[in-house]
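[09:14] KT: can someone run the structure on this one? pasting the chain below
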Amino acid sequence: MPRSGSCSGAFFVIRCSYQDLMIKRMIKIAGLQKMTLIDYPGKVAAIVFLAGCNFRCGYCHNSELVQPDGEKDFFSEQDFFNFLKKRKGLLDGVCITGGEPLCHEEKELAEFFKKIKGLGFLIKLDTNGYNFLTLKNLVAKKGLIDYIAMDVKVPLDKYGELTSLDGDFENIQKSIDLIMKSDVDYEFRTTILPKFHSGFEFEKLLCLIKEAKILYLQNFRNRKTLDEKYGKELAFKSGDLERMKELALKFVKKCEIRN
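[09:31] RB: done, structure tokens below
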């Protein structure tokens, strides 16, 4: 997940609650980073942060997007698209992240994506893969999504502990399989920490994405975490990361470490 975006600039900001926007079935644009050179591989892009998430991962560093309680500032869609119109020829694409974008209604997302594509921009979608049916239906709309980055967090039997969600985590495997079989370019990525990825647990995770094109490993950072207890968790050392990368290459075609 990208770092929280800048909300500066001449934008019309709506002051209201997340629940109000849910009732009005509006896209909840909580933040905007006007340019990134690293979040969309090989492309110059903007990042739009959508509010809300179905997971409560303790190490998450975007708590303001995960739990958008009370009244907050949201961007209007109209102003967002006015911004994009001014960036034609300067940006290649738009990264849509969160939170979890697929928490929004499928119809809202499809219309939002179509407007972005209509302006000539590529779309990169960040997702945790839990809302499999929404992902499946959006991918089925040929040409709507150009790149998917899915967070594969832990082995399936650990998802409940990490996310504080009692759900059907077989959807994670379904989303992985869908992405790998689709025509959409993709990457998988994992934030790794000893609590969840030591020893055999990491191998169990790798089995979920066997033969995948690429996996990015991101080392855990114990600051600004959703659950303050994770502020006391330790991260892997650089030597550990290299060994995990070598192990991953036995399962996936390419593995890189992201700082």
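[09:33] KT: thanks! The longest strand covers residues 29-36.
[09:34] RB: yep, looked fine to me
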